[in-house]
From TrEMBL:
It comes from Gilvimarinus xylanilyticus. The active site is at K78. Keywords: FAD, Flavoprotein, Nucleotide-binding. 7-chloro-L-tryptophan binds at K78. This is Tryptophan 7-halogenase. The keyword Flavoprotein applies. L-tryptophan binds at E340.
């Protein structure tokens, strides 16, 4: 299709729609016109409140002032996710955004740690992790450092509704045009098969050269109109529902998300400045909506402030996330449960990818193919990481967990587990969202103990090793004293 792309239409005004509109307009500027269509009749999904550190790139590109952002979205800082009862009931571990310890040129820290642990010289892995030490003291700081060992990488928890409204304000200030109205029909060019116009209930027609489908689970253009098909991954990740309810805020706001495994699913707790976000993700094959709602309400830390709401979803991805002149972004392009807070990141990376391959002078089949291939790989990498949480559980309390332990997993994941179990080597593919330290924490947390460590970790004698471990812990503990308690940080930063 050799048409110059001048008019972009974004369908949907949830997080995906407004993030797409803001980023595209900011980067492409006057070279394109962007119109966003959203319907007041169709609510946004209303969840999606925990993020991962790359979201800071979005804020940087959009020129967002962090104090204003925290204020407008009632955000808090996120240093990690705490997984409770995932391996066995009563046990927990962290997935922090930092890397534990300090590594040498050819040998990562965890090999020294493994050797020290076996010799009875070391502590828990997380005792050498700055994010963990900060969060367990309830503290936070923005550390300005060039020393990678002393970085405190962070993300945010924010109010999904406020975040959408904030992105809308930014988008409209940049020149994005908003049209309110429900799309009832879509016209297709009979020769090319491309979408030409969205026809609204009001009679208004919105034409475009390129359409970004951010219509949520409806996937109005990509699935309903173009029928690209769906790769269903529910045999690996069988949870298909969530019940969500907000509750009163905690007296002290934690700088991390909690993911607590229950009888047939898991519960999230996301601390915000004004309230806590809660939800239970479950499989309808193992739990009714009523049972799930009851489990959630029984496990709230504070009083609920609204009625629980059940959300249905399907795990998997659109077979082609770019087809003809339609690109699916957000829930319209696929969904993986929010265990690692990856969905908003997948919105961000879809737009970054689209900007990389932006078809200024027309849509080329090879470019679309490349875009789709990269999207598929990204989704598969997240999928494998999520499956790992379930597969290696040793819970015996319910059929749900026992069945999850029995599922056959993708070969790519089994290979990673086997290589780590053999020699403690972390296999991380190019462009994987998750760093080696993420894989490390998950594998150890889920009970994989490598049979051997790297030979370089054996080069020190025991006294040297003990000294190295002690120095490492001291190095990591040192910055904590100067940090503020999380709530104090939020207050001071707001006033700075
Ligand atoms: C239970 C759950 C928990 C989640 N937790 C997290 C999390 O912690 N972290 C994270 O990163 N992500 C999370 N997500 C994902 C996250 O919520 C979404 O990725 C994000 O909100 C983007 O949603 P969206 O904009 O694609 O869709 P939606 O918010 O559903 O927006 C769809 C938009 O399309 C419009 N629309 C639909 N049909 C029409 C029509 N016919 N005409 C006009 N407009 C129309 C609607 O009006 C709406 O504006 C979670 C998702 C679920 C289900």
């Amino acid at each position: 299709m050799n048409t110059r792309i001048k008019n972009i239409v974004v369908l949907g005004g949830g997080t995906a729609g407004w993030m797409s509109a803001a980023l595209l307009k900011k980067v492409l500027g006057g070279s394109v016109n962007i119109t966003l269509v959203e319907s007041d009749e169709i609510a946004t999904v209303g969840v999606g409140e925990a993020t991962i550190p790359p979201i800071q790139h979005v804020n940087r590109v959009l020129g967002i002032n962090e104090a204003e952002f925290l204020r407008e979205t009632n955000a808090t800082m996120k240093l990690a996710i705490k997984f409770e009862n995932w391996y066995r009931q009563g046990q927990g571990y962290f997935h922090t955004f930092s890397s534990p310890g300090q590594s040498s040129a050819f040998c990562q820290f965890h090999h020294y740690w493994l050797r020290a642990k076996r010799a009875g010289l070391g502590k828990d892995l997380w005792d050498y992790d700055l994010n963990y030490l900060a969060l367990s003291a309830g503290k936070f700081a923005k550390l300005e450092t060039r020393d990678p060992r002393l970085e405190l990488p962070y993300a945010y928890h924010f109010d999904a509704g406020l975040y959408g409204a904030y992105l809308r304000k930014i988008s409209q200030a940049l020149g994005v045009k908003r049209i309110e109205g429900k799309v009832n029909h879509t016209t297709i060019n009979q020769d090319t098969g491309a979408v030409e116009q969205l026809l609204l209930a009001s009679g208004v027609a919105v034409s475009g050269d390129l359409f970004i489908d951010c219509s949520g689970f409806r996937a109005l253009l990509l699935q309903q109109k173009l029928g690209v098909g769906f790769d269903d991954w529910s045999h690996w990740l069988p949870c298909d529902r969530a019940v969500a309810v907000p509750s009163e805020r905690l007296a002290q706001t934690r700088p991390y998300t909690r993911a607590i495994a229950h009888h047939s699913g898991w519960q999230w707790q996301i601390p915000l400045q004004h309230r806590q976000g809660n939800g239970l993700v479950y499989s309808s094959r193992f739990s009714s909506d009523e049972q799930a709602t009851q489990t959630l309400l029984q496990n709230l830390e504070c009083q609920p402030v609204a009625d629980p709401r059940v959300i249905h979803f399907r795990t998997g991805r659109a077979r082609q996330q770019w087809h003809k002149n339609v690109i699916g972004v957000g829930l319209a392009s696929g969904f993986l449960e929010p265990l690692e807070s990856t969905s908003i990141h997948l919105v961000q990376s879809a737009i970054v990818r689209l900007l990389k391959y932006f078809p200024h002078t027309g849509i080329q089949a090879d470019v679309v193919k490349q875009y789709n291939q990269e999207s598929r790989i990204e989704y598969e990498q997240v999928r494998d990481f999520l499956i790992l949480h379930y597969k290696l559980n040793r819970r015996e309390d319910s059929e749900f967990w026992q069945q999850m332990a029995r599922i056959s997993i993708p070969e790519s994941l089994q290979h990673k587990i086997d290589v780590f179990a053999a020699q403690g080597v972390l296999v991380r593919e190019r462009n994987d969202i998750f760093a080696e330290s993420s894989w490390l924490q998950l594998l150890l947390g889920q009970g994989v103990e490598p049979r051997d460590h790297h030979p370089l970790a054996g080069a020190m004698d025991e006294a040297q090793l003990a000294n190295f471990m002690q120095q490492t812990e001291q190095l990591k503990r040192e910055p904590i004293t100067a940090m503020h308690f999380h709530d104090d940080f939020l207050q001071r930063f707001d006033q700075a």
